[in-house]
């Protein structure tokens, strides 16, 4: 293997802005900031969500960003500051680097992801109980 996930994460974290959960929370509600939740639907259902966040499955990110893609979402053409998060901060670091590499200029990710967000007692909607 030429490059494993640890090397990819190291590169991403060296190039993208990581926000502590409390700092990220301070951006909630700003008209020019969009939170992007990269977790899969099962994670959202199980763990809960940040009410103002938009959901983008990690596997669709590149297609949603690229204006030439048939799956492009205008959301990514707004010029907003995009704050990516996942469960633990790994997928969001890689996603933020990808978004930056694709030309989005204002990109960050939540250090420690949604788990750190919840641990910090920041606002979120609870998950759905099983049953």
Report on the structure:
This protein is of the alpha/beta class. The chain has one domain: 3-Layer(aba) Sandwich (Oxidized Rhodanese, domain 1). Helix content is 36%, strand content 15%. The protein has helices at 5-15, 21-25, 41-47, 61-65, 90-101, 113-119, and strands at residues 17-19, 33-37, 54-55, 81-85, 107-110. Helix 3 (41-47) links the parallel strand 2 (33-37) and strand 3 (54-55). Helix 1 (5-15) crosses helix 5. It is globular, with a radius of gyration of 14 Å. The mean pLDDT is 96.
Keywords:
Rhodanese-like_dom_sf; alpha/beta; Rhodanese-like domain-containing protein; five-stranded parallel sheet; Oxidized Rhodanese, domain 1; Rhodanese-like_dom; 15% strand; 131 residues; single chain; thiosulfate-cyanide sulfurtransferase activity
Ends apart, CA distance between termini: 42 Å
* Text of the CATH class: Alpha Beta
| Strand and helix order | HEHEHEHEHEH
Regions with pLDDT < 50 over 5+ consecutive residues?
Answer: none
Largest sheet: 5 strands, parallel
Number of helices: 6
Name given to the CATH homologous superfamily: Rhodanese-like domain
Please state the oligomeric state of the protein chains shown. Answer: single chain
